[in-house]
Amino acid sequence: MKLLSKIFQPVITIPKGAKIKNTEITCKSQKLLLECGLVRPTSAGFFTLLPLARRALNKLENIVHHCLEDVGAQQISLPCLTSSRLWEASGRLEKVGSELLKVEDRHNKKYILGPTHEEAIADLLSDVAPLSHKQLPFILYQIGNKYRDELRPKHGLLRAREFLMMDAYSVHTDTDSALYTYDTLTHAYRDVFRLLELPVRRVEAPSGDMGGSLSHEWQLPAPSGEDRLSVCPSCSHTTLLEEGRGGGACGQCARETEIWSSIEVGHTFVLGDRYSAPLVMACYGIGLTRLLAASVELLSSDRSLRWPHALAPYKAIIIGPKEGSKEWVHHDQTQLEQLGAQVEKVAGDVVLDDRHHLTIGKRLLQADKTGYPYIIVCGRSALESPPRYELHRDRSEALTLPLNELLAFIKDYNNELDLKIKKEM
Questions:
Q1: Which part of the chain is the Aminoacyl-transfer RNA synthetases class-II family profile domain (predicted)?
Q2: Residue 208: left if φ>0, alpha if ψ -120 to 50, beta else—which one?
Q3: Could you give the CA distance from residue 373 to residue 301 in angstroms, rounded to a whole number?
């Protein structure tokens, strides 16, 4: 169990329309993550991820690892720097040059801080060639920082110059094999988003500078999103709208469609042999920092963070009485730690708010703003026999329960979530 006073969480208050270190506050996820002490801007488009954000990202990475390795993907790590000659050979150096961050070493050799690694993977394949047909197909993936020189970085982690990304690459003897694996990875993607309980939609998209014969974007509907989807309320068919175009009628059932704003959180491509002739490649990406921020953008209120249950940095926080109060006699630091140990068995990772000099009300407001799924308060009812504790959950009305019922409620709720996810999968 962690003590809140020991967590590095520099909370701040951001006045409306404020600017922080050349960072304009343009959306609620950006504002809340800054105010609650989860991220800190260093310069335009670059952020330090503080301990709570890092915990949430660790949980997201673990989910992605599980879902990808479940379909046979193998993890690797490629250097962040890729020789610019590889990008020149593929033709992308000229096409996307303005978005690339470039460096030069002391020997005047030029490198690119990679936004993706298709060229590097293709170079790896050529270096180990020839590959046996018995080895194919295979899927390689990595999770690491990527870089893009955004002209106008904004919305915090939603459009940054440095971002954490999962990028995967499958290698095949022919297009049929690539399409089969593409379908397999599609199921893995759906498993990731189901575990997060996020309504992400796969939509056909242009291949753009990446090239290839097939491309899909993975879009999370959210009011602040910069992309637009045409969604049929009847058959759920979804298409990506080009800028300046209206929705029109659904191509599947001819019903009128609705226009939704959305955030792109992933992209997948069947590349063909553009990068890897005579082999066929497909590639797959999920922007993990963007997905984290997008989920917060969708689920949170203007005042309080809300997380996918699986990503909450800590599952529960315990708020004890104010020091010196009547309740403190029966629920001091030692007794609160004993309570926390019992809650931890059913809830998972638990924090004890040990700032006992503050009122319960102030600590409760801060806990709600940070978005703990379970907030347990030792208030006046803790003096009853047996003691009863307040349980606050997701802005719903507080329950007041004895300890055995409190623990059973949390355990049952967690089991319901697990069953719901398993049924959907």
A1: 58-308
A2: left
A3: 14
127, burial (CB in 10 Å: exposed 0-12, middle 13-18, buried 19+): exposed
How many CA atoms within 13 Å lie on the side-chain side of 1?
Answer: 23
Neighbouring residues of 130: CB distance < 8 A, sequence distance ≥ 6:
none
Secondary structure (H, E, C), the chain: CEEHHHCCCCCCCCCCCCEECCEECCCHHHHHHHHCCCEEEEECCEEEECHHHHHHHHHHHHHHHHHHHCCCCEECCCCCEEEHHHHHHHCHHHHCHHHCEEEECCCCCEEEECCCCHHHHHHHHHHHCCCCHHHCCEEEEEEEEEECCCCCCECHHHECCEEEEEEEEEEECCHHHHHHHHHHHHHHHHHHHHHCCCCCEEEECCCHHHCCCEEEEEEEECCCCCEEEEECCCCCCEEECCCCCCCCECCCCCCECEEEEEEEEEEEEEEECCCCCCCEEEEEEEEHHHHHHHHHHHHCCCCCCCCCHHHCCCCEEEECCCCCCHHHHHCCHHHHHHHHHHHHHHHCCEEEECCCCCCHHHHHHHHHHHCCCEEEECCHHHHCCCCEEEEECCCCCCEEEEHHHHHHHHHHHHHHHHHHHHHHC
- Is the CB of residue 346 less than 8 Å from the CB of residue 340? no
Q: Give CA separation, 136 vs 17, 304, 363, 422, in Å.
A: 54, 48, 56, 31
Taking the complete model, does pTM exceed 0.90, yes or no? yes
Spell out the long-range contacts of 332-338 with Cβ–Cβ below 8 A and sequence spacing 24 or more. 336/378, 337/1
- Please name the residue that has the structure tokens 């690892």: 65
The HSE-up count of residue 109 (CA atoms within 13 Å, CB side) is 8
Q: Sorting pLDDT into bands at 50, 70 and 90, what band is 422?
A: low
> What are the pLDDT digits (tens) for 335-365?
999 999 999 999 999 999 999 999 999 999 9
Residues present in the chain in total: 425
CA distance 102 to 89: 16
